[in-house]
Amino acid sequence: MTVEILTPDVVLYEGDATYVGLPGSDGSLGILNKHAPLVTTLREGEVVVKNDKDEQTFAVKGGTVEVLNNHVTILAQ
Q1: What domains are defined for the chain?
Q2: Which residues lie below 8 Å from residue 61, measured CB to CB, with a gap of 6+?
Q3: DSSP sequence for the chain
Q4: I need a surface site. Which of 3, 10, 17, 47 has the fewest CB within 10 A?
Q5: Per-residue pLDDT for the chain (77 aa), expressed as one digit of tens each?
Q6: pTM for the full predicted model
Q7: CA 55, CA 26: separation in Å to the nearest integer?
Q8: Cβ contact 40:64 at 8 Å
Q9: 6-10 long-range CB contacts below 8 Å, 24 or more apart?
Q10: Which residues pair with 40 in a beta bridge?
Q11: Alpha-carbon 41 to chain mean position
């Protein structure tokens, strides 16, 4: 799946991933390839992006995530 993590000022991440871990407002979420469509809000925490080569972690203060057509868009604060 493709992943974008965007802030008002900068693109934090843009690329492929096999897993995205999110601090959802109602609890932690794990997104895998071909996940069902989803829109939800994020609380303060860490977004984890894993691919075949490595794992990256990004601190967020909140935001919104959309999962659609094997594409994850995170609008982070």
Answers
A1: 2-76 (2.60.15.10)
A2: 44, 76, 77
A3: -EEEEE-SS-EEEEEE-SEEEEEETTEEEEEETTPPPEEEEE-SEEEEEE-SS-EEEEEES-EEEEEETTEEEEEE-
A4: 10
A5: 999 999 999 999 999 999 999 999 999 999 999 999 999 999 999 999 999 999 999 999 999 999 999 999 999 99
A6: 0.94
A7: 24
A8: yes
A9: 6/73, 6/74, 6/75, 6/76, 7/75, 7/76, 7/77, 8/77
A10: 65
A11: 11
Output the pLDDT for position 44. 97
pLDDT of 14 reads 97
Cβ(52)–Cβ(35) below 8 Å: no
C-alpha gyration radius of the chain: 11
Residue 8 contacts by C-beta under 8 Å, 6 or more apart in sequence?
77
